[in-house]
Amino acid sequence: MIGYDAVSLAGLTLQDQYFAAINDTNTSVAQTRCSGIFGLGFPLNSVIWTDMFMNQQQVSRPRSLHRDVVSRISAMRKRWFDKSVLGISSFRHIDPPSYQSMPQLKRQATTSSSVISSFGVSGPFIPRLVSLGGLASPMFAIALQRDTIEIGGNEGMLSIGGLPSGVQNESLTWVPVRQYTLQQDGLTQDTSLEAYPIAWEIPIDDVFLDGVKLPRSQLCSSNISLSALIDTGNSLIRGPPDVISYIQNMLGGPHFACSSPHTLAFQIGGRMFPVDPRDFVNQVHSGDAQVCGANLAQTDVPVLGGGGYLYSWSLGDPFLKGVLAAFYYGSFTGLSQDPPRIGFLSTVPSDAGQRLEDAVSAASAGQYDLPGTKMLPPSSLSYPLSTGIGGIPMASSLSGSAHGISGSNQVGQVSSARERMQVGSAATLWCSFFTLAMWTF
């Protein structure tokens, strides 16, 4: 079901906000205190916006609105919207329309202007605030806290409407978000024929492992520019199958010594953004802190004209734990004047490799696993205890043993126009906000 009600977040409130009514507790909802997911992507990638727009227009989803999403919606519909699973909610609700029962839409039946104007009516919460001009700046920023190997680092947080206090705009490296053309199954505006963004996807210059530039994938067309999806809903670094295999060969196989630091780095906007060696690896066997594997996985190869995304890499939590990432929506009605972009500020310390070696040495000497923790969201906000690179708040120290560390972070609270809410760990952020790119519920 899709419901609507007044929704508030960090002092920001919208009336008649649509959202999915999820009542399935056969997951870890009770343990994590999470009762849903919070999408921060563009409206064109929103399942709820798609259903609402089609319901209002009384037509099927236009081909020009990225047909690849249709197959994902169909696959997800039974899980998310099946009444027999979800039950009945107590608030007002409407049933989503059936794709099979709707007539085929001709391209000219729906204009781009009607699509864009609907963002402020039935779009996701944050994009809707952007469309209505309800934020000081049309953006949000995130930082993820390290919850393994050496716990700490950046303070887990979400800043809405501006950068965290103390972080300067000029400190970030800004790059444009890919805008999909009509030929790429995107959306163009009627008058200016602008392309529109669908996901938080950016161009990347090259990829390096331990200072060696990696070859480009031979599996995708050379006509597709190299790009990456920035995605909190991804717990790994995902790349082309042949390049991932190449990396594993350079590492000596899928398993290698934890005490040997390796740096996977992405050149973005002319600057290097490394994955912290502590976030690049994971312990393979319980009780053995000396054998690790890389937090890598293969992803689908982009195909021109295939109706899908064109990115080759998906940069998930291992990458995001080592940066402050700022996501700027721009203007939905004038992208050429104010285009979407993402800014990055690397927070990986110069001695990260040595810190990994020290953590592995300490775990091996004590014959216990590398530390890890899962923390629940906090019940209150407070000011940060310290700041790190670029003025980014740092996580407070945690109490407890290396095996079962517990505690809560602290975060500063700023004005209601630029609200910041704390996220206990990468896992909590994933549960609370799920993904910035692939899904926008």
Automatic annotation (TrEMBL):
SUPFAM superfamilies: Acid proteases (SSF50630). Belongs to the peptidase A1 family. One of its GO terms (biological process) is proteolysis. InterPro entries: Aspartic_peptidase_A1 (IPR001461), Pepsin-like_dom (IPR034164), PEPTIDASE_A1 (IPR033121), Peptidase_aspartic_dom_sf (IPR021109). One of its GO terms (molecular function) is aspartic-type endopeptidase activity. PROSITE patterns: PEPTIDASE_A1. This is Aspartic peptidase domain-containing protein. It holds the Pfam family Asp. Residues 1-345 form the Peptidase A1 domain. It comes from Suillus plorans.
